[in-house]
Amino acid sequence: VEEIMIQSEKMSVAGQLAAGIAHEIRNPLTSLKGFLQLLQAGVRKEEYYNIMIEEIEKMETITSELLFISKPLTETKQLESIESMIHDVIVLLRPQAKMKSIHIEYNGSGKEKIYCDRSQIKQVLINLIKNAIEAMDQGGTIRIFTSSSDSHIDVSIIDEGPGIPQDIIHKLGEPFFTTKQSGTGLGLMITKQILERHQAFLEMKANEQIGSTFRIIFPVPA
Ligand code: ADP
Ligand code: MG
Description:
Keywords: ATP-binding, Kinase, Nucleotide-binding, Phosphoprotein, Sporulation, Transferase, Two-component regulatory system
GO biological process, one term: sporulation resulting in formation of a cellular spore
Shape: globular
Strand content: 15-25%
Structural class: alpha+beta
Largest sheet: 5 strands, mixed
Bound molecules: adenosine-5'-diphosphate, magnesium ion
Strand order of the largest sheet: 2-4-5-7-6
Catalytic activity: ATP + protein L-histidine = ADP + protein N-phospho-L-histidine
Low-confidence stretches: none
Enzyme class: transferase
Helix content: 40-55%
Order of helices and strands: HHHEHEEHEEHEE
Distance between the termini: 41 Å
Protein name: histidine kinase
Mean pLDDT: 89
Radius of gyration: 20 Å
């Protein structure tokens, strides 16, 4: 009885998501309305336009990230080389890393293949490596490893950021949970959803000394 009560009091993911979207969209809308009213009343300042554009951009980012979730898996799941997907994503994110003096290093046998939707798994890698870059303000190295056993193929992404405080680790992946000024808090949720569709999962841990490790665990293709 106890368990059922706890379950029913906990908001469903859909409920959390709906509440989050409403909240995240309402705030910029309220601010847009306020600025429009000021303009209507004849109070004109150049900076109002900049703030209004920023608010609109915030809503654009949120809606385009949400659209990604509703995208169906393509019917063309294929056997893809993990190394080639990691390579593509490193090329894509290298300029952003370079600007923060961050080096991205990859080590693997290059032989691992998984059965997947290539663009979705690349999105997972983008989300995780972007988070690693955003966590590292002092420069440093992001290390990416792949390894495999009889049953699993793993990809680990290890950063040298401040790590994840124990008290928030259980919130990671909740829709709209972010500790960043301009974060959406959707990256890890989308990541987990995509991985679920691939019978894969995500493990996260704060490292002993420095940084965090995010490990993706894929099943070996049949
Ligand atoms: P966002 O990046 O928009 O904040 P995410 O879902 O990608 O949303 O991440 C949620 C939160 O998880 C981040 O705001 C941050 O607090 C934490 N986080 C994720 N990755 C890392 C990391 N590599 N190091 C430290 N904290 C992280
Ligand atoms: Mg993120």
